[in-house]
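Dear Dr. V.,

Thank you for agreeing to look over these. As mentioned in my earlier message, I'm a first-year student in the group and I'm still getting used to reading structure tokens, so any feedback on how I've presented them would be very welcome. I ran two proteins. I've put each sequence directly above its structure. The first is here:
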Amino acid sequence: MYGFAIDYPDVCKVDFNSKSRRETGDVVFTFPNSSRIYLSWGELEKVSKRFASVQEHADYSLDTMKKGKNVLNFERVSRDTLALRNHNTSVNKVRFDEKALKLFGRGKDISREAYSLHVHCDKSNRYFVLYSMAAADGELKFDRIMESMRDSFKCH
């Protein structure tokens, strides 16, 4: 539909943002337990003005997450640069605790893991970000799911 392809688990419900178009948009893959994986895309020209590389783009995204007001104990677990269909990509995994807020005080913090893939594609003039956030002790193995989705991704 928008010139890219990705394989996703067949248990997922797929929802495109109604404002999505070829140049920019997002889609969410929702699992039966309400966990989600997101794919966002936009105009490469816009991010290229701000970031010299896909790694800088990914670092900015992670720094923004790290500075979140409910984020504690942020730790980068892994950072890789991989070639994916002749594109350099930045693949990251982080762990952090999310402050649980209750009506009257704080609840127990929630340990989270987040995974991301950043791709810059000159041919389609778009960038893509595939990301997920899940409870660190969750039943779904998001690292394997993200790896499978990453390996199947085609941006043009």
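The second protein is here, in the same arrangement:
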Amino acid sequence: MENLCLFERFSKIGLGLLFLLISLGFMLSGVTVLPIFGFVIALPFFLISVYFFRAHLNKGCQIEKVAE
């Protein structure tokens, strides 16, 4: 079970970083080359990256909070 959780965590972080880098690339092109178009394209990629960073893992991979 631990290996599945490790893969799930890395894939979640990897996809979030991928979409974040894509959005940063479009934002950079929005500043330099395509003023409006770059920002319009960057916004959905940024929102997708936020979704992947905030996505919940399945129940078996959640870290349990222990009451003290």
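From my reading of the second output: The chain has a mean pLDDT of 84. The radius of gyration is 16 Å. Does that match how you would interpret it?

Kind regards,
E.
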